[in-house]
């Protein structure tokens, strides 16, 4: 398979620690060629421990369009005083030998990325991983789960804890019927990654796929329902059979009809499964939104 993600530049060339003796060369002089981000931090600062790794990730993703210098204020109080640092974390951006932008406090990665884009005039753009993920998402939407899975796999190899990459890989493996491989991916993930909404939704999708294997034939299940409209197990199995066949709207309709007829059947089994459907589809998916509306209409009628 063609490699879509190039190797990242050596972090040692992009990120370094600086002190009072080297600050002029590391920041002022270096910024005459490339924008330099200065992160003022201290070992005792909790928010610094959150911001620092996020800053480093975005700088590495920028592929050399920006550099980063870290200054420990406990060891270099004179620099902090000169820059009038009053609280940390504090970040300053230098270009052409002077400060041009900055912020205080820990920011989410999305805002850090926008900060870097402003600093570089947009030259940093999206990271190669993000571009690869966008391409994989488009392939999934087009029905090419095999090709998308290959790209997601490359992303995960570069960044094993990447949320979008792992969620996409699990969904792609499920789509091509490689359920055991998807389970292996999940087992290797840290708990924090498993709990991320995108990954949790992908795991729900895998669980549903496993449950739907023995659902039965749709025609036979419809015949059983025609013979006994209150055959809730047949409706439940029909929902799973439709899910396995890619008919998400039909799967939701079958469960909602079961809930309408008897919401307490087997300790609200149909409602609980419907919630799992919504988790697997995602909260912003049109099928989820419409399904929740229909469910509310049934529950509160």
From TrEMBL:
Keywords: Disulfide bond, Electron transport, Redox-active center, Transport. GO terms for molecular function: protein-disulfide reductase activity. SUPFAM superfamilies: Thioredoxin-like (SSF52833), TPR-like (SSF48452). One of its GO terms (biological process) is response to stress. The keyword RNA-binding does not apply. CDD domains: ybbN. InterPro entries: Thioredoxin, Thioredoxin-like_sf, Thioredoxin_CS, Thioredoxin_domain, TPR-like_helical_dom_sf. GO terms for cellular component: cytosol. It holds the Pfam family Thioredoxin. Residues 2-121 form the Thioredoxin domain. Belongs to the thioredoxin family. NCBIfam families: thioredoxin (TIGR01068). PANTHER family: GEO12009P1. This is Thioredoxin.
